Amino acid sequence: MGNMFQNDSRQFKFDILVEICREVKEGNLKESNVQKYARQLVSVSGPRFRCCVYKEREVLRQRVRLAMGEMANDIQEHNPRQIIQVIDAACDGCTIHKIRVTDNCRKCMAKSCMGSCRFGAMRMGAHRAEIDYDKCKECQACVNACTYNAIVVTERPCYNACPVQAISWDENRIAQIDENICINCGQCEAACPFGAIEDISWVVPVQTLLKMETPAYAIVAPSIQGQFDNTSLPQILKAIEMLGFKKCYEVAIGADAVAEYEYRELKEHHEQGKPMTTSCCPGFVNMLKIHFPELYEANKSTTVTPMMALARKLKKEHPEAGVVFIGPCLAKKQEAMIEVSAVDYVMTYEELAAMLIANEINPEDVVADADVAPSNYGRNFAVTSGVASAVAQAAKEHGDGPYTTVLANGAKECKKQLTLLKHNRFTADILEGMCCPGGCIGGPACISDPLVVKGRMIKENLPNKAKTITESLDHFDFDEVNMDVNSKF
C-alpha cells in the first residue's frame, strides 16, 4: 500500500486504521495483534523521527489505543466525550520556551535586549545573549527592542491554533486539553506537526454494526465530493454501500431542509431585530454554547444540523436501523453523543479510506447507480459561504430578502465576530460560522487538498445547477421530521 499522506504522523495513523479494519474483517481483532503490527512500522535498526525506537513504539502504542476507541493514556479514566486527546509520548518536539534568542544574535554593543528587560532575565553570554527563564515573564520587550531580529516569539502550534485557549501545559511541559472549554474543532490536531494530538476513532463499532443483521445506513457530508481522485460522487456513494451499508445518502439532502428551516427562523429573527447565527458547524455551536452562552440562547438557530436532519428522517422511516455519518469533522463525533441524537456513529474520511482499502474496494473502479440528487445549494454547505447562500436562496424562492451576511471563515474569525455580536457591534442579519478555514473541505480529517476538492465539486455539479431547494424538498420530504434541535425526533 502506497502512502496516502506526506505527513508521516498521519500516515502512521492511517496504516494502523487499515490494519484494524483488516483484523475486524477477518474476525480476529485483538489489541495485541494491532500493537504487534504497529511495532513493525518502526525499524529496530534505529529511530526515524524520535530519540529512540522505544519512544517511537510508545507513540504508536498510544495511536493504536485511540484508533481502537480507547484513551491514549491507559491510566486516564475513559471519557469518550473528549474526542481530541494528547499522545503524551509524542508531545516533546516543540520549543518549550516562547521567547528564544536565535543564532542571529551577534552579541552587539548596544545590548538593547538587556536594557529593555524589567525583570533582569537577559544577560550576555559567551557567544550571544541568553535568557534566564526563571525570571522571564514573556513580556516580549526584548523581542521589540532587538533591531537585529535575533529574538523571536515561538508559540506552540497547538496553542496558537486553539481559538478558545483550551491548551495548557503540565509540570513536564506536556500539552493538556481542558475538556470543559474545548470545542473539539480539531484545529490543534491539524496544527500539531508531531502528530501528538489525535481523535478517538469509532471505526471498530462501525464495522461491528455492519457485521450484524441490523440494517445500517450511511450518510456522507457534502465535502465527500472530490475527496477521491478520478472518482465521481455516485461512485463514492456506491463504494460505501459495498462496505455493507443498505444505502448511502448525501447529507446535502438534509442541508436543503436546513436551508429552508433556517430561512424561516431568519425571518423571525429579522422581525425581532436580532441577528441569527447558523447551526451547521458543531465546533462553532460549541464555541457559542460554552464561551458565549447568552448568544447561544438569544441568537443561535434552533434548526438541527444537516447531519441530524437526514438522520432523523431515516430513523423515522427505519426505526430499527443504524445510522453512520461520514465526514471531515471531529466535533461531529461529540454531536452524535447528545441526548437526542439520531446518529449512532461518526467516521472520518481517513477512517472511510482505511475501510475501503481493507476491503479491497477502489471507488474509481465502481459502477455507479443513477439517483436523484439534492440541490447544489445543499452540496455547497461544504464550503465557506455555502450555508448563507443556501438560506438566501430559500428566501429568494419564497419571494423574500435580501438579507445581509457575515462569513466567519475559521475558528478565530468566528470568535471575533461573536465578540462583536456580544457587544452589539454586529450589523448583519446572519452570521455563518465555520471553524475550519474554507469550510468543511478544509476539515482536519479530509484526505485531499481543499482547493482541488472545490474545483472537482464545481465541475461535477455543473449539470445540476438549475435545481432549486424547493425542487429538492419536493422529492425529499421533511414535513414529518422534527427539525428543532431541542426536541426528540
How does this model look, in words?
The protein is an alpha/beta fold and 489 residues long. Helix 1 packs across helix 15 and helix 10 packs across helix 13. Helices cover 39% and strands 11% of the residues. It has 20 helices and 15 strands. The model has no long low-confidence stretch (mean pLDDT 93). The chain is globular, with a radius of gyration of 25 Å. Strand 12, helix 14 and strand 13 form a beta-alpha-beta unit. The strands form 6 sheets. It has a 4-stranded parallel sheet with strand order 10-9-12-13, sandwiched between helices. A 3-stranded parallel sheet has the order 11-15-14.
What is the element layout, followed by pairings?
Layout: H1 8-25, H2 31-40, H3 53-67, E1 84-86, E2 99-101, H4 112-116, E3 122-124, E4 129-131, H5 141-145, E5 151-153, H6 157-161, E6 167-169, E7 175-177, H7 187-191, E8 197-199, H8 203-211, E9 216-220, H9 233-241, E10 247-250, H10 252-272, E11 276-277, H11 282-291, H12 293-298, H13 306-317, E12 322-327, H14 331-335, E13 345-348, H15 349-358, H16 376-379, H17 386-397, E14 405-409, H18 411-422, E15 430-434, H19 450-461, H20 469-475
Helix pairs in contact: 1-2, 1-3, 1-8, 1-15, 2-3, 10-13, 10-17, 10-20, 11-18
